[in-house]
Design a protein that fits this description.
The chain has about 280 residues and is an alpha/beta fold. The protein contains 9 helices and 12 strands. The chain has a domain of about 200 residues: Divalent-metal-dependent TIM barrel enzymes (TIM Barrel), CATH 3.20.20. Helix 3 crosses helix 4 and helix 4 crosses helix 5. The protein is globular and about 50 Å long. The protein binds manganese (II) ion (2 copies) and zinc ion (ZN).
Length: about 280
């Protein structure tokens, strides 16, 4: 039976290669990490010894899919020129780090337009990508993450993701579908009917084959709240029914699913959430 690649966002405390044993110990077969402090602009280059250790750990690991999430400071939609330059440089650095590590997917938040308007923001993001991609390694796929649409954050409407993809034909973008964000943004897939409708809309506007990764978070806030507050899978407004639809959708069996909720003492919550997802998928644990 096919096992879903399932995992968590793991800490790299003590060395980037340490994420593997941490995730393996709780049965992960997929992994997401930061390669640097995600809330600082400064980052030291990766130590070649650590890079070699990371690659060796990855090679030996039962974890088959590894993703990096970019720094939270990066905003490719910002109208502030200084911040835009810094964001482009930092994102280019993120792509190079992924390439060094042999990680194929980099998850990013499209950006916040800060009241300059949706279309201006989308154009700004596209212009940034064009500059970045001109110098970037070609073996890393950028995954645009769906957002909850808090403040002026773009990427909460499926049309906005499609627009970025259209404006930057030189790259084969993937999508990271964050369940909490999509639900909070106003797409209700908590029931079987809702799930079918939302995925049909995504298929029509973006294309389900673009989804390379799911972030499995339930939502504390109601559908349409546009507030990003994660809850453990099945315990929030999406509920077990919504996640059951996703876990049983054969289009996504091979697509990695990563938890972004608190791990709990001794990974208590992670273990519970991973077991729930396997159970919903009909896998015996
Ligand atoms: Mn994210
Ligand atoms: Mn996420
Ligand atoms: Zn979130």
């Amino acid at each position: 039976m096919t096992r879903h690649p399932l995992g968590v966002h793991a800490s790299i405390a003590g060395g980037i290669e340490k994420a593997f044993p941490r995730a393996e110990q709780i049965g992960c077969t997929a992994l997401q990490i930061f390669t640097r402090n995600a809330s600082r602009w400064q980052s030291k280059p990766l130590d070649p010894v650590k890079v070699a250790a990371f690659r060796e750990a990855m090679l030996k690991s039962p974890i088959t899919q590894v993703f990096v999430h970019d720094s939270y400071l990066i905003n490719l939609a910002t109208p502030d020129d200084d911040k835009w330059q810094k964001s482009k440089a930092a994102f280019g650095d993120e792509l190079r780090r992924c390439s060094q590590l042999g990680v194929q997917g980099l998850v990013m938040h499209p950006g916040a337009h800060l009241d300059t308007g949706e279309e201006t923001g989308l154009q700004r993001i596209a212009a940034a990508f064009k500059e970045i991609l001109a110098e970037a390694p070609e073996n890393v796929q950028i995954l645009l993450e769906t957002t909850a649409g808090m403040g002026s954050h773009l990427g909460w409407r499926f049309e906005q993701l499609a627009r970025i993809i259209d404006l930057v034909p030189q790259h084969d973008f993937g999508i990271c579908f964050d369940t909490c964000h999509v639900f909070a943004a106003g797409y209700d897939f908590s029931t079987a009917e809702g799930y079918s409708a939302v995925m049909a809309e995504f298929e029509h506007i973006v294309g389900c084959e673009k989804i390379r990764l799911f972030h499995i978070n339930d939502s504390k806030k109601p559908c349409g709240s546009r507030v990003d507050l994660h809850e453990h899978a099945g315990l929030g407004q999406i509920g077990a029914s919504g996640f059951a639809c996703l876990m049983r959708d054969h289009r996504f069996t091979a697509v990695a699913k990563i938890l972004e909720t608190p791990q709990g003492d001794e990974h208590e919550y992670d273990l519970r959430n991973l077991a729930l997802l396997r159970q919903l998928a009909g896998e015996t644990t």
